[in-house]
Amino acid sequence: MRHGSRRPGPASDARRRIAAAAARLISESGLRDYRAARDKAAAQLGIRDRASLPDAREIDAALREHQRLFGGERHGQCLQRLREHAYEALRLFAAHEPRLVGAVLDGSADAHSAVCLHLHTERPLEVTNLLAERGIAWSRSARRLRLARDTVREFPSLRFDVDGTTIDLTLLPFDLLRQAPLDRTSDQPMRRATLAAVEALLAAADTGAAR
């Protein structure tokens, strides 16, 4: 009997190929829906076996690897610019306990990414009034978030553009300030950052660039 590492099977190889192709679609075309990117990648590769489809965590890992290999300095500059926009948005909505979430926080953002904030307020009208006072045009939609494995709720969402960057706000009740929704890739509470934490990220990047 031979010992040693086993070669990955065809399904495992197909999962990696689909994940890598999905990562390219996400990074290069701005397709942010992991499932849509996965299905499109599988169709492009001619792979129809459902068992060969990667999950969100595999696609997320492939996206980070793609950015590491091909993003280079341009990716770092893009991320810094998006975090600067996030900092300004956090300041603007400081009265509503804002938190940065998503790709701009975890470092997987690209030029197509929106700056995503969670605002915590019992008075959503105050948020739209603030936008109106600043002369900012916005659009309204809804977002479904998982609060527990079997609990999904819908919350109002607002989007607007600043200097070519989309700011995406999800308006949550104040009691969810201490209960972050679940991350779609890990089923763990979302990582969130305060204004001070984002300021520290920007300062760390500036220090690294100056070395």
Secondary-structure map with pairings?
Layout: H1 10-29, H2 34-45, H3 56-70, H4 72-92, E1 99-101, H5 103-106, E2 115-120, H6 124-133, E3 139-148, E4 151-162, E5 165-172, H7 195-210
What does this structure look like?
- With 211 residues, the chain is an alpha+beta fold.
- The chain has two domains: 10-70, no CATH class; 73-210, Beta Polymerase, domain 2.
- It is 46% helix and 18% strand.
- The chain has a five-stranded mixed β-sheet.
- It is globular, with a radius of gyration of 19 Å.
Number of extended strands: 5
Instruction: State the assembly state of the protein chains.
Output: single chain
What is the percent of helical residues? 40-55%
Q: What is the CATH class designation of the largest domain?
A: Alpha Beta
Q: Which strand-content bin applies to the residues?
A: 15-25%
Quote the CATH topology of the largest domain: Beta Polymerase, domain 2
**Main beta sheet: strand number and arrangement?**
5 strands, mixed
If strands are numbered along the chain, what order do they take across the biggest sheet? 1-2-5-4-3
Our count of helices gives: 7
Helix-and-strand structural type: alpha+beta
Gap between N and C termini: 54 Å
Reported CATH architecture of the largest domain: 2-Layer Sandwich
- Radius of gyration, rounded? 19 Å
Mean pLDDT: 88
Low-pLDDT runs of 5+ residues are: 1-7
Helix and strand element order? HHHHEHEHEEEH
